[in-house]
Specification:
Layout (H helix, E strand, L loop, with lengths): L7 H14 L6 H10 L3 E5 L5 H17 L7 E5 L7 H17 L6 E6 L24 E6 H10 L1 H10 L3 H13 L18 H9 L7 H11 L4 E4 L6 H11 L10 E4 L3 H14 L8 E4 L5 H10 L3 E4 L1 H10 L9 E5 L1 H6 L3 H10 L5 E6 L4 H10 L4 E4 L10 E7 L5 H11 L5 E4 L3 H13 L4 E4 L5 H12 L5 E4 L14 E4 L6 H8 L9 E7 L4 H11 L4 E3 L23 E6 L9 H9 L10 E6 L4 E6 L3 H10 L9 E3 L2
Parallel strand pairs: 1-2, 5-10, 5-11, 6-8, 6-9, 7-8, 9-10, 12-17, 12-18, 13-15, 13-16, 14-15, 16-17
Antiparallel strand pairs: 2-4, 3-4, 19-21, 19-22, 20-21
Length: 657
């Protein structure tokens, strides 16, 4: 379907007419009409003729709406008359829009609703009258405030009931089920759906917004028991959804009116603690006033203390820092109803058991104790026996059809040839990002030196790194500025990345459970993954133990002699290819009121002149920020940020080496 190029006035006239008569669906129609009456709609006609240009417009309007006084502008309609006429192109763009919203740090603050002239319910003929509900005259991106939607829902009780109670089921209901909901008829969710859980409408709504449909095995087995307040010990592989499994019950049982600590999560590293805190905030974004504190090393104790003094509902931290706050009497735990030990086995491996036990002893005797672990050593059983009361035991083995799609290869080599073999593995198997494991930090250092000498984009994680350097290394790996990350098991705790394409075990681990945990970082989110392990003659017993434990044999492969052409005739990808992104570090962060949208606007506005697609992941920390930009424009971006101002202020900007 092609559009004639209308004038902006004609576009605005037809859009306003449509808004007045539109039946936008569950509670959004009264919301749209309410703001229209009050004149709080900003209509913007985008001149964009490409997706890249539209993405830049969208970023600018999202940032503008987040800054605007809600009494003046409460919602923005970004009308797109010259691009995305094809419905498939439009749907593809919505994925970019959702990623942009998250990158700007506006998830939970703004929403993006969307309308299209060719919108069709999936199970209806295009001629069916029901299809007219969302059919706008042009593709439109509707930018809404989360708080405004909540107020609108509260203002229309009937629509609120429909919206809150059933949004989690809409993905599976189809049109017939949708009509039954609108008619007030009961609908029976399928076993294994999120809709079967005894959760509040707010949490079910967030689950639907995040695309959660089916429960994972660990979630289905754990959440009902955790909602009842029972102690639980759960064993499940990395990437199985265990964070959601304990986060939802913890949020469900909160008393938001009581601003005292009610739930505590312990994690082995700052990175994992930060991930859990982000997940709690994301899942709890419909909980008004929810406060989640991050208590981990590498951050000033004073700022954490101030947050605790203001009152928090939940806290996530590392054992050492949590114990430090207990000793300072800045952390009051007399109201804690639930404590979760996440990756409990690794915390014990890292020597945190004494700290963990001191924290557990400080809690009320009635608290719920939840242990989640990828492996199940004797030390975990002993901890459970000592501190849990008749715990529910959940041990999930993923069904064959649900196992991650990971190809597992083994290369037999000699110790002195491991560097050469690693170069071959990285060259032979194309990868966007690769995580390489070694058993000792001295091996990590040697590999780093050898790979760096050949021009490979590489960085290392080891226990001697200062927190500032660890932040830098992790930021560059997450945003695509580093392709290969070398790490020991302890140093790699908290690395949890979707899209990791390759895992290499330069050294086989002593425990088969650790092998499973290592390779579980690839092959996630429906993507295929590759795990390559090196085995020396001295490692045969380790290899046999791994194959016995997993119940499958690793496929042996031999490195090609130098100069050997590939049998599949595919082009050989040089291991030394550089990373596609560079990382810039700014001297301002969250405490300076700096947000991702501010940085994006500075780079893509008139002063910066970059395309939205040139800007990658933006990470905002308390006192500094990282932003990834494509390598081709990094010097231009650096000069622009150094010369310009953000929110009227100048910040120090440096290229992260």
């Amino acid at each position: 379907m092609a559009f004639e190029r209308p004038t902006d006035d004609a576009v605005l006239a037809s859009t306003r007419s449509w808004v007045e008569r539109a039946v936008i669906g569950l509670s959004l129609c009264p919301f749209a009409k309410a703001v229209e009456v009050k004149g709080q709609v900003r209509y913007i006609v985008s001149a964009a003729e490409t997706s890249d240009a539209l993405l830049s417009d969208l970023g600018r309007e999202l940032s503008a709406l987040s800054e605007e006084n809600p009494d003046v502008v409460d919602t923005t309609l970004l009308i797109v008359p010259h691009v995305l006429a094809d419905f498939l192109d439009y749907n593809d763009f919505l994925k970019l829009a959702a990623a942009l919203l998250e990158r700007l740090g506006l998830t939970g603050k703004l929403q993006i609703a969307s309308f299209h002239p060719r919108y069709v319910f999936g199970d209806l003929d295009e001629s069916d009258a029901a299809n007219s509900s969302n059919r706008s005259p042009f593709p439109i991106l509707h930018l809404l405030r989360e708080s405004s939607v909540s107020r609108a829902v509260a203002s229309f009780p009937d629509a609120a009931t429909i919206f809150e109670k059933n949004v989690a089921l809409l993905r599976t209901l189809g049109h017939d089920g949708f009509q039954r909901v609108l008619a007030g008829e009961a609908s029976s969710p399928t076993d294994g759906d999120f809709g079967t859980l005894a959760l509040s409408p707010a949490l079910l709504g967030v689950a639907a917004e995040l695309g959660f449909e089916k429960l994972t095995s660990i979630q289905a087995a754990s959440i009902p028991s955790l909602l009842q307040g029972l102690d639980l010990i759960g064993q499940s592989a990395t990437g199985s959804g265990k964070t959601v499994a304990f986060a939802l019950p913890m949020l469900e049982r909160l008393d938001l009116a009581n601003r005292e600590l009610q739930g505590l999560v312990l994690a082995p590293t700052r990175e994992l603690a930060a991930q859990v805190a982000r997940e709690l905030r994301k899942l709890g974004r419909r909980h008004p006033g929810l406060s989640v504190a991050l208590l981990s090393g590498g951050e000033p104790v004073r700022e954490q203390t101030r947050a605790l003094e203001r009152g928090v509902h939940l806290a996530v931290g590392t054992p050492g820092r949590v114990l430090d706050h207990l000793r300072r009497r800045t952390l009051r735990v007399h109201r804690v109803a639930t404590i979760v030990l996440d990756e409990a086995d690794r915390m014990l491996d890292m020597g945190f058991q004494p700290d963990i036990e001191k924290v557990l002893k400080a809690l009320p005797s009635s608290r719920q104790v939840v242990l989640f672990s990828a492996t199940f050593p004797d030390a975990i059983r002993e901890l459970s026996t000592k501190y849990q009361r008749s715990p529910i035991s959940v041990q999930v083995e993923a069904p064959v059809e649900g196992k991650p799609d990971i190809v597992e290869l083994v290369v037999r080599t000699e110790p002195e040839k491991k560097v050469e073999t690693l170069r071959w593995a990285l060259e032979r198997h194309p990868h966007e990002t690769a995580l390489v494991f070694a058993n000792q930090k001295v091996t990590v250092a040697d590999l780093d030196k050898a790979l760096r000498a050949t021009g490979i984009s590489v960085a290392s994680l080891h226990g001697d790194l200062e927190q500032r350097d660890r932040d830098r290394v992790m930021a560059k790996f997450r945003n695509g500025s580093t392709r290969v990350l070398l790490a020991t098991d302890v140093a790699a705790r908290g690395i949890d990345l979707d899209g990791l394409s390759l895992v290499v075990n330069v050294d086989l681990p002593s425990q088969p459970e650790v092998y499973v945990h290592r390779i579980g970082r690839t092959g996630r989110a429906g993507k295929s993954g590759l795990a390559i392990s090196f085995s020396t003659p001295e490692d045969e017993h380790k290899l046999q133990a791994i194959e016995d434990y997993t119940g499958r044999a690793l496929t042996p492969v031999r490195p090609d002699p130098p100069g050997t052409p590939r049998r599949d005739a595919a082009p050989r990808v040089a291991a030394s290819r550089d990373a596609p992104m560079d990382t810039l570090r700014l001297s301002g962060g969250r405490k300076d009121k700096l947000r991702a949208g501010d940085i994006l606007g500075a780079l893509t506005g008139e002063a910066g002149g970059l395309q939205g697609t040139d800007v990658g992941k933006i990470e905002i920390h308390d006192r500094f920020s990282f932003v990834a930009v494509t390598k081709a424009v990094s010097q231009r971006a650096l000069a622009s940020l150094r010369a310009g101002r953000i929110k009227g202020r100048r910040f120090r900007v440096a290229l992260v080496e």
